[in-house]
Amino acid sequence: xxxEICLPERSDGTAGMLFAALREALGNAAVLTGExxxxxxxxxWSTLAPQPPLAVVRPADTQGVAAAMRICAQYRVPVVPQGGxxxxxxxxxxxxxxxxxSLERMVGVEEIDPASATMTVKAGTPLxxxxxxxxxAGFFVPLDLGARGSCAIGGNLSTNAGGxxxxxxxxxxxxVLGLExxxxxxxxxxxxxxxLKNNAGYDLKHLFIGSEGTLGIITRVVLRLSAKPGCTxxxxxxxxxxxxxxxxxxxxxxxxxxxxxxxEVMWPDYWHTVTQRVPGVxxxxxxxxxxxxxxxxxxxxxxxxxxxxxxxxxxxxxxxVLADAALAQSLADVQAFWGVRDACAEFPQxxxxxxxxxxxxxxxxxxxxxxxxxxxxxxxxxxxxxxFYGHIGDGNLxxxxxxxxxxxxxxxxxxxxxxxxxxxxxxxxSAEHGIGLTKKKWLPYSRSEPxxxxxxxxxxxxxxxxxxxxxxxx
Length: 474
Prior knowledge:
Blueprint: H1 12-26, E1 31-32, E2 55-57, H2 62-74, E3 79-82, E4 99-102, E5 109-113, E6 118-122, H3 127-136, E7 139-140, H4 153-158, H5 166-169, E8 176-182, E9 188-191, H6 205-208, E10 217-224, E11 226-227, E12 231-239, H7 242-256, E13 260-266, H8 268-277, E14 291-299, H9 302-318, E15 324-327, H10 331-341, H11 347-351, E16 355-360, H12 366-380, E17 385-391, E18 396-402, H13 411-424, H14 449-462
Parallel strand pairs: 2-4, 3-4
Antiparallel strand pairs: 1-2, 5-6, 6-10, 7-11, 8-9, 8-10, 12-14, 12-15, 13-14, 13-17, 16-18, 17-18
């Protein structure tokens, strides 16, 4: 796939003037060029090859971001925003001739307001630090993903991250009340709103949440905090059919209500791979089953909510919805159950080179899609490996596919099969990872031409010189 982007030509003299202007505005330590550019700033977690940027700029505050953006706009030099660099679609990967603007120095919680139940935080702050600060203050940040120790909250918002608890708390945008953003021309839009109800004109924050740094650079955030759960219950369940899985999901929504915090599904190919090949992962549900579910519920009073969860689970067994189930008896059990679901992090060691996918589908057709996708991959590659799992309660399916021993992996063929079927089943090519560079070609499979045209109009209106993260998304 061609990711080349046409940029304005410039001479070494222009680059020298650019560097001098950036250093004068931000200080020498904030501008890295040549051999001083760290390897980490040359790529993200996508499989794209590293690309050294023209320079790495590391502002310490919003004013520094604005100054850097104004200077780069003056010299017509593109800017690629970077947070924790944990994105999987190339959204933070530099492009040739562009400045990488890293928010790594913009870290820290500015305020926790208990009365408003809000936190004001700088965009470069790691998600785990945000979670810990909320916990210490007696609150809860429900956004959670495997890269929590590395990803930055600004990047989480720029991709509208999902994670494990969307079924209860929603996507990242549901947790945001206010933003501060630097626009492509260097102007600053500050609306650090703390109010749940604020209908004073357009809700501009939603322009930037999920826009992957193509419309503005998020610098500060006001997060809506949740009440800290008093207890966590979990069960691993085995089911005889996908129809019973859907019945279980509906029963969980009705019977557990707001307690339900996660509904994670694993098909047998995934289950057997992680329980048989990943060290330290045990199988609490022996036998062969059609699918497996990790259900998590979070309550406020363990004496009341834990028996309620157990009674609900018992009813599902008595009514024949479940074939088998293991109930967590301790927090260690809860963590062990999540270890089965999170064992996908070991796939690079277990499977070797492979292609990961993050798609969304209507829950009703998800098992049909899995069967069709598995069959299509094996029809094209007889020995193809395809593993299916995900946050099915919110319609998000993850796929890991590879052809063992193939060098290189037939990425384009695998991708065409996966996304071609997504289009047929009325799904989305990106449920929570964004579009970036790697999925841009496939975006029309999920968005109509009028929608794409409107995206392009928004981009042209806010960034007429196409200098902010050019070539990404649209």
